Each structure stands twice: as structure tokens, then as C-alpha cells.
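New to this. Explain these C-alpha cells.
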Amino acid sequence: MKGITHIILTMATMLVVLAPLTPSLFTLESIPAVLILILGAFFGSLAPDIDKGKEAAIYHSEIPGARGRKFHLTPVFGYALYYTCYKPLQFLFRIILGKKIYAINGHRELPHSPIGILLISILVTVYLWLICLALSFVPYLSPLYNNSLIFVFGSGFLLGCFLHLLEDTCDNSGIHYFYPFCFSRLRGKVKGDGTDPRPKIFAVVLLIAAFILGVLFISGLIPAIWSYPTTLMVPIVLWVIFLKASGVPARKEVRE
């Protein structure tokens, strides 16, 4: 799928995740955590495409579909991710497993697998922790030491990466969920070139669901005790429906 599709679907899903918690989010303590979580999910929504080549959205400051608006941290993060996470992990996997780690079509390799996004997310969190540790020795920056926002970002990043995999599962290229031990892809029938209307419909459904949940919880029509179960269950149910509507699993038994 295109970068803009990943961003929209991931951000819309994050709104569904956060909507049931809306009454408790509008506090001075919660707002920074929410922003950091969303920032992590934003980068995560683009991160698996680091194996795609320099045309991937994560290597460019221009936000896809944003009419020329730029976010200059994106390529900085993208290239840092490429050289400090992806290449070292690819090298390690190559030593252990040999050339079989390379997908035939040269895309959707390690960063497009559960084990890949987990290892990359761990490395990102460790690097951030080390950077904050170093900065904590600077006067007035001591609160950065072991700051919980580091782990909030890491969690948002991992969630964004996982949503990227779900989104790519819907298209006709699919994902190697058992990479590098199995190269059969789980795929759908959505065209990844942006011409298929289904991702846009999914995004609208997610936004409507987020709005309805926000209203229900803010108004108290649903008790606060149900906020965390709803945060977990509603996105899962919606994505199961989206995967089914995308034709998953579509069969194509070849090594890719």
C-alpha cells in the first residue's frame, strides 16, 4: 500500500483505540503521553517500508497526500532506522540463516514480519533510552533519565508497525508472518496502488467508530469501567471485518 494509506488507516485506528479513554485524556499529565504515542504510531506506520528503497515515504520529509506539507523529522528517523536497526539486523540474519532471508521480489523482507518489527522496536526503544540517559547529565534535563515517555513512544511505534503489517495483509502482495522460516504469504485482494476504494471505506468506518465511542464515553452512556476492554476489542473486531472484506486469505502458493 502507499504511504498515505498507511498513515490514514493507522491514525484512524489510533483514534478508535484512544476514543474510549477520552474522558481521562484531557489532563496535563496525559496529553504529552498521547502525543508521543501518536508520534510513535506515525513513524511505525511507515517504518516497515525501509526495505522498499529510497522511494519509500519514510525517507522523505513531504507528508504523502498533505499538499506539500513537510515533516522534516521523518527522513531523519527513516535513515537512522535504516542504518542503526534494519542493516545490522539484516546482517545478523544473513550470518545465521544465509541468503534465504531475501524475498525473491526484494521487498517485504525482515521489516515486514512480526519478528522484524519486534526486534526493530526493541532497538528503537533502547537507542532512545541511551540518548535520554546521555542527555540526563545535562543540567535541567535529568527528568529524561528512564522517562516513561520513552516506552510510550516504543509501544506506539510497535503498534504502528503492526498495523502496517495488517494493512499490507489486505493487499495482493501480502505478508510473510513466519519469515524467515516460511515464505508463504497471507494476502488479500486489495490493489496496493491506491485505486481500490476499500482502504478509504475502512478509514471512514474507523473514524465513525472513533466518533461514536468518544461521544458515548464522554456522555457517560457507557461506564468508564468498560473503557479498557472497548479499547482492545473494538479495533480487533473492526480489523477482522476489514481483513475478511479484503479477501484474506487469498491463495497464491509461491515462494516470494
Observations:
- The chain is about 55% helix and 0% strand.
- The longest helix spans residues 73-97.
